[in-house]
From TrEMBL:
<feature type="compositionally biased region" description="Basic and acidic residues">
    <location>
        <begin position="1"/>
        <end position="39"/>
    </location>
</feature>
<dbReference type="InterPro" id="IPR007249">
    <property type="entry name" value="DOP1_N"/>
</dbReference>
<dbReference type="Pfam" id="PF04118">
    <property type="entry name" value="Dopey_N"/>
</dbReference>
<feature type="region of interest" description="Disordered">
    <location>
        <begin position="1"/>
        <end position="44"/>
    </location>
</feature>
<keyword id="KW-0813">Transport</keyword>
<dbReference type="GO" id="GO:0005768">
    <property type="term" value="C:endosome"/>
</dbReference>
<dbReference type="GO" id="GO:0015031">
    <property type="term" value="P:protein transport"/>
</dbReference>
<comment type="similarity">
    <text>Belongs to the DOP1 family.</text>
</comment>
<dbReference type="GO" id="GO:0006895">
    <property type="term" value="P:Golgi to endosome transport"/>
</dbReference>
<protein>
    <submittedName>
        <fullName>Dopey_N domain-containing protein</fullName>
    </submittedName>
</protein>
<keyword id="KW-0653">Protein transport</keyword>
<dbReference type="GO" id="GO:0005802">
    <property type="term" value="C:trans-Golgi network"/>
</dbReference>
<feature type="domain" description="DOP1 N-terminal">
    <location>
        <begin position="128"/>
        <end position="411"/>
    </location>
</feature>
<dbReference type="InterPro" id="IPR040314">
    <property type="entry name" value="DOP1"/>
</dbReference>
<dbReference type="GO" id="GO:0005829">
    <property type="term" value="C:cytosol"/>
</dbReference>
């Protein structure tokens, strides 16, 4: 009887153990799936915004940890990498071993096929000496967390350098994301050049370890710190940085293309005339162009101009130096890159640049030489976008900019010097045929597009206490009126400008007046504002569009309305500013200009109506 009871108890215990084993296996399977999600999340947290996620840069679709193995699922195949027990990876246990493994080696990072590197990854992960290498690097990286001054950074970099030097035989960089982040932090502009030089020495070590084969795969990590350095480093650091560019990056050739915009931007920052680095940087850029091809090179250059304001001046200097004015654009089409829209966007960004006027000088030099307004390399819309920005450069009151703009508008490329073109007064020998035929229609369209913006943000002439530029909002019709007033310094051009754009300006201003008038009528029931025709009629006798009495009466009427105070005050301010500017413009014109202008417009309109009939 006792034996039967003992046997039944044994069967119960065995059944309970079997159920426990099944539950344990189910939990392992579920934890494997959870590891896949948590691993990707942990890796993504370690990668900065400027880099891509690990699983995106690899050709791996899924990463699963199950039964002491990493399973890499790519598009075409599945590779299983056996790993040692979790106790080999520290006290955190199995729950953290996967993210540790993925961040352990640079073999699993980058854009190469992980399946092809599975054998190498397995051999490294199972190597006890390699795990000791990982521990040494991890210990050196933790030293950065306890730094209090720049001397501590040099000490931490020394420890990291010694760890790499002692284990260079593995040809691998453990924890590449963290290493790249720490090195990038050591290149901060506020740190002395001694720290910069020590960091560059460590970069050299890493590039030697990776070699020509693996460097392109991880370059996107190390470029974050290297490429912006040229803008704020000392002379010794610049020389060492150029040495690294020439020794390690230039030989990559076409494999440099993914990082080419940043690399070009980094070298362009050293292109300063009068310095010892000008010729060296120029030569390096030429060699890069030869290695990747001129079309791909200039496409990346325009991309750098578009995204980095600091490189616009040296980039345009380089483009002007490379553009041969003795040849036609047909023979140098590679300068436009492989996407004309990107080039136009970059040129527009240079025109909008609120920094040094040298940027716009080199821009106008390039436009007048490469793209006259009758060029067939750009479409009309491209010229409209460029002129919409370049026309308003005259408001910067820079004589050299004005000469270059007139040169482009008049197609005076053959002039021996830009200074031969006057910026004010009357030039009786000026030939306006090209301007009337090609430039004027584009100018009209550019002004029309500009007025649609309603308001624009412009840089104030005054800088704030910390040296940053202040911006202010201005009304487009006010800026157009100022533009026309400024062009009247050249009557033979200004009168043509005025003839084509004045009606557009008045129509835009009248729409603002009508909006304010409708609010008065709906909310206050008072008498509406005078129409634009009545305003012109009144002021053609007195050379003024808006009088002080009309503004004061408008303010008094609005004060009794239930119109929101901000809205009404803003509209009054807008009309006042336009009134002051248009008064100055009208006073600069001949007596009766408005009536003669309207007469010509009515005749043209009547002819059009008769033609249509």
């Amino acid at each position: 009887m006792d034996r039967q009871i003992d046997g039944s108890n044994d069967r119960k215990i065995e059944g309970q153990r079997h159920e426990q084993r099944e539950r344990r296996m189910n939990r392992q399977t579920e934890s494997g799936i959870d590891h896949e999600r948590s691993t990707k999340a942990n890796v993504a947290d370690d990668v900065s915004r400027s880099t891509l996620h690990l699983t995106d840069r690899c050709m791996v679709r899924d990463i699963i940890y199950l039964n002491h193995s990493i399973i890499l699922k790519s598009k075409n195949q599945t590779v299983k990498i056996p790993v040692p027990a979790s106790k080999s990876f520290g006290s955190k246990g199995e729950e953290t071993s996967v993210s540790g493994l993925l961040n352990m080696s640079s073999v699993l990072v980058g854009y190469t096929d992980a399946a092809a590197n599975a054998a190498q990854a397995a051999s490294l992960i199972n190597n006890s000496k390699y795990r000791a290498y990982v521990a040494a690097v991890d210990k050196a990286l933790k030293a950065f967390e306890a730094t209090n001054e720049w001397a501590d950074l040099i000490s931490a970099l020394g420890k990291l350098s010694r760890a790499f030097h002692a284990n260079a035989k593995f040809g691998d960089i453990p924890k590449p994301v963290t290493v790249a982040k720490r090195l990038s932090q050591c290149l901060h502009p506020a740190l002395p050049h001694g720290v910069h030089l020590k960091a560059l020495e460590t970069y050299r070590q890493l590039f030697d370890i990776l070699g020509r084969k693996d460097l392109p795969r991880l370059l996107y990590l190390f470029a974050v710190g290297l490429f912006p350095l040229m803008d704020h480093c000392g002379i010794k650091v610049k020389s060492e940085l150029l040495n690294i560019f020439e020794q390690y990056l230039l030989p990559l050739g076409v494999e440099l293309k993914p990082a080419l915009p940043g690399f070009i931007a980094g070298v362009l920052l050293g292109l300063e005339e009068g310095t010892e680095f000008y010729d060296r940087s120029f030569s390096l850029l030429d060699r890069v162009q030869d290695s990747v091809g001129p079309e791909a090179y200039f496409a990346c250059l325009w991309e750098a101009v578009l995204g980095s304001p600091s490189v616009r001046l040296p980039a345009l200097m380089y483009v002007n130096a490379k553009f041969n004015r003795q040849k036609s654009m047909h023979d140098q089409e590679y300068i436009m890159g492989n996407n004309i829209d990107h080039m136009i966007a970059a040129l527009c960004a240079a025109a909008d640049d609120d920094g040094s006027t040298l940027v716009q000088r080199h821009l106008l030099d390039f436009l007048s030489s490469a793209f006259p307004l009758n060029s067939d390399h750009l479409v009309r819309e491209d010229f409209v976008q460029l002129l919409r920005r370049c026309l308003f450069l005259v408001l910067r009151r820079d004589m050299s900019l004005n000469r270059r703009l007139y040169q482009w508008l008049l197609n005076r490329v053959g002039d021996s010097a830009v200074t031969g073109l006057p910026v004010a007064g009357v030039d009786e020998q000026l030939d306006t045929t090209f301007f009337i035929t090609y430039a004027l229609p584009i100018v009209r369209k550019a002004i029309e597009e500009y007025l649609k913006l309603d308001t624009v943000q412009v840089t104030s002439g005054l800088a704030s206490w910390d040296g940053t530029k202040e911006h202010q909002m201005q009304y487009t019709e006010v800026r157009v009126a100022r533009l026309l007033l400024y062009f009247m310094d050249r009557p033979e051009l200004g009168s043509l400008f005025l003839e084509e754009t004045l009606l557009l300006l008045l129509e835009s201003a009248s729409r603002n007046d009508i909006r304010l008038e409708s609010k008065e009528e709906v909310l206050g029931g008072t008498k509406g504002l005078s129409t634009s025709i009545e305003t012109i009629n009144e002021q053609s006798r007195r050379f003024s569009i808006t009088s002080k009495s009309s503004v004061s009466s408008r303010q008094s009427r609005l004060s009794i309305l239930s119109v929101p105070e901000e809205t009404s005050a803003e509209q009054i301010k807008r009309l006042e500013e336009f009134g002051k500017t248009i008064n100055l413009l009208m006073n600069s014109l001949d007596v009766g200009f408005i009536w003669n202008f309207l007469e010509r417009k009515l005749k043209l309109k009547s002819i059009e109506m008769l033609t249509d009939a």
